[in-house]
Each structure stands twice: as C-alpha cells, then as structure tokens.
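forwarding from the other thread:

> can someone predict this with zinc ion?

sure thing
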Amino acid sequence: MSSVDSPVFPAYLGVDVGGTSIKIGIVDDSGQSLAHGKIATEHEKGPENGVARILSFAKALLEEAGVIWQDIRAVGLGTPGTMNVKEGELLHMPNMSGWNFFPIRSYVEEQSGKPVAFINDGNAAAYGEYWVGRGREYDSLVMFTLGTGVGGGIILQDIPLHGDNSHGSECGHITIESGPDARICPCGQPGHLEAYVSATSLVKRAKERLAAGEASSLISVLQRDGVISALDIANHAEQGDVFAKTLVVETAEFLARGITTMMHIIDPAIVVLGGGMDFGGSASPIGQIFLETIRRTVTELTFPVLAENTIIDFATLGSSCGYIGAAGVARKQYGQISS
Ligand SMILES: [Zn+2]
C-alpha cells in the first residue's frame, strides 16, 4: 500500500500462525493494514512463549501505527492443523507437536484482555480475500491455497464454513483420483487433490518422469543440486522447457478437477487461488497459462451456466491474507460489541 488512508476505528489485531513464522498485523475497521510484520514461530519453545512474543510484537506494531491498545477491539487468530473451533483448542499441529491440545483461545484472551476470534488458517486466508481482496465484490468465495500442501477456505454470505467438527473447507482433501494407482496424500488417504497439486507433489511427479528418462533442462539442476523445487519448475517453464511447461499444465488440469467439485457443491461466485505456488500469478506468462488451463478444463468439466458465470482468478493480498482475514473474523464476531 503506497499511502495509508486515515484509520477507521476500532482496529483489530490479526495473527496468522504458521509452522515457520507468525504474521501479525494491526487492521482497521475498513480492512486496511496499519502496520504488520512477522516473527519466527520457534514452536519448540511452546505456545505460552509464542503467545507472549506475539503480544510483545503487537505492542511494537501499535507504536508503529500510532494506535493505542484501547483502540483494539478484538484479536483474530488463525492457526494450521486440526482444531476444535467451538472450544478454542488446538488439536494436532503439523510439525508443532508441543502446541497440540493447547487451549489457545482462552489463553490469548487471558494474556491480552481482549476477546479472541479463532479460525483455521485456510478460512482466515479466504476471509481476507473475501473481505478486502479479490473476492470483495462477491458474497460467496472458495479459496485454494497452493503451497507445500494445499489449504482451502469457504466463505458463504460472510460466514466461514468450519463444519460441525471443525473439518469443513478442507479443499485439499477432496478425492480427484480413485483408481489403484491413485497417489497417497500426506494425510494417508489415496487420490486427494493435495497429492497431485501441492508443490511437494509437483516436484515428486517431475522427479519420477525425469528418472524415467524424459528430456528437460531441469536435469542439469538435479545433477548440480541433487534436488529440484517447484520454483525451478516454474522458472524452466518460463524459459521454454517443454517438460516443465507440461508439468504446469498437468497441475492446472488436476486442480481444475478439484475446483469443479467445489463448484458443484458450493456454487460460489468466485474461486480464488492463493499461496506461493501460483507460477508467478497473472504477472507471469506461465502463471497465465496455468490460470487459462484451469479455466478451460473447468469449462469442459462443469455445467455451462457455471462455466460462464463463476470467476476463477488469483488472490490479491499475497501472504497478508491470513492475518487480515483473522482480523476480519474478529471484526465480524466482536465489531458490534461496545467496549
Ligand atoms: Zn488428504
């Protein structure tokens, strides 16, 4: 944001917890980020230590934004892994096992003295895009977050879909392949979308085919570094490597199957694609090929009226969508309560 409009109060503290870093921001009532930054998760120090550092960093952000703590109405907290949204409790945290079963909502409430809205990170990201991002003009949105894994979020008429057991909106774990050769998802089940379109699975598919003898400029990277990354594949596709480009197109086709399924269940106004693995997004020719292939494949797979009307596009908030969305959910839950 090049210039900051006058803040609209009250403001909210948005927190997006990840395995490596925690993104934190002060977000005003209009969805404008007044100050933001990130700290290392250092999950091995435990959740109490993490919460203390989050609140300490938030104080520094308040100073930077020229906002006083009394202007913060509530805290929005998004976390990965499985959780019990109703009880405000973390269940199983991937690679952060010291945080398992921690009653994080009540703990942050005690430590901050503010009400806390608790949400999974996928729905937080989706709410950010719904509130002030690519979905801001629409009243229903499905988001796919493409990274190391595949996350998702569903917002219907301003309501994030948690489900009865806090396992709603798991867009990465819908089945797109059911044959005997279906790939196994990190969750252990065969044929899930994540097993086909995450950065991890993209690299796995690439290495399998290179090992089978397909020609590609990626072979030199593999020989030099011993590994290839999703970014290498994107870069080599950009430089004209046919094999890398085929992988991008194939990824788009797999993703289109998952998108079509969600369209047939939800019929959202817009499907938004976020996360790091966007092949450069709309600014890049490969990102454009990725998106066009998704749109074309969805058109082949879905009903004509959905093909014509459903918007499919890249997200616009980048890595800020999580803390902005968490703040937005805090505003939705506590914005009307007088302080
Ligand atoms: Zn799965």
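The longest helix spans residues 242-266. thats all i got for now
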